[in-house]
Amino acid sequence: MISIKSAREIELMREAGKFNQLTFRLLEKHLKVGVTTKMLDKVAHDFIIQNNCVPSCLGYEGYPASICISINDEVVHGIPGKRKLKNGDIVSLDLVLSYKGYHADATRTYIIGSASQEVKDLVKNTRLAFFEGVKKVKDGARVQDISKAIEDFAHAHGLSVVEELCGHGIGLEMHEDPDIENFDNHNMTKLKEGMVIAIEPMLNLGSKEVYLESDDWTIKTVDKMPSSHYENTVLVTKDGYEILTGDD
Ligand code: MF3
Ligand code: CO
After folding, report:
1. Which parts of the chain have pLDDT scores under 50?
2. Cα separation, 147 vs 117, whole angstroms
3. pLDDT cut 90: percent of the chain above it
4. Hey, what domains does the chain have and what are their CATH numbers?
5. Among 195, 180, 179, 120, which Cα is nearest to 150's?
6. Which of 42, 62, 72, 96 could form a disulfide bond with 56, CB atoms 3.0-4.6 angstroms apart?
7. Which helix (H) or strand (E) covers residue 126, if one does?
8. CB of 113 within 8 A of CB of 120?
9. What is the C-alpha separation between 206 and 5, in angstroms, rounded?
10. What backbone torsions phi and psi does residue 17 show, to the nearest 5 degrees?
11. Ligand 1 mean position to 61 CA, how many Å?
């Protein structure tokens, strides 16, 4: 079901979005060669709890951590553990928290140390693909407008689009209707003022094919080439949009 948020709900979702951004600012201070992904998860978990928020992923369908950390050929839903970040890794942090019941979902991909120009471009262009998509958002626009804008931008920059996962409505539930695909799936659903959606392109340097790891969570590229992810929670307004989780 698609939910339309009241003015009060929108205010709470803005608050949730602010806490989400603050958590990222803290995580960024810890993103260094040698840090374990488990440590990053703990930093996020403790900060979220201290701020009277709830880490939405922890326990969601049995997910064992507070955030998802996906490195290099991992596309999404990497589980934090003993692994240490190393020079040249690209690390996506996917962070969902709720405040007074309302969820805010955002993802950033970071380069640790130095990386090749093509990896830098992958990360940069995944972020820019989000902005191409979000520019289409306004009351009366269709989901397809967002999807096509993301797909066209990705292809124009030589990147492939992961099709197995998509963005989504968000509010009292982490995943609400409608789906927000990153490729043209002919989704004619109309956006309405007061809807809140997560737009989240997942783009690959190589082929679009992905598979589910034996841990039953981590999604990886079949060709082992790197993947990047960028996401924000976005309010649909009459004439456009408001990004609730920042635009960094
Ligand atoms: N941001 C992720 C998504 O929209 C959240 C995954 S939470 C998990 O799918 F518990 F499934 F990992
Ligand atoms: Co999401």
Report:
1. none
2. 26
3. 100
4. 7-243 (3.90.230.10)
5. 180
6. 96
7. helix 117-134
8. no
9. 39
10. -60, -40
11. 10
Instruction: Answer yes or no: is the C-beta of 68 below 6 A from any ligand 1 atom.
Output: yes
| pTM for the full predicted model | 0.98
Tokens linked to 53: 């928020």
| Ligand 2: centre distance to CA 166 (Å) | 8
Characterise 101 by phi-psi region: left (phi > 0), alpha (psi -120 to 50), beta (else). left
Q: Is 105 exposed, middle or buried (0-12, 13-18, 19+ CB in 10 A)?
A: buried
Residue with tokens 């997942």: 202
Ligand 1 neighbour 176 (Cβ under 6 A)? no
What pLDDT does 1 receive? 87
Q: What is the pLDDT of residue 59?
A: 98
Nearest-angstrom CA–CA distance, 242 and 63: 30
Read off the pLDDT of residues 65-105 as tens digits, 9 standing for 90 and up.
999 999 999 999 999 999 999 999 999 999 999 999 999 99
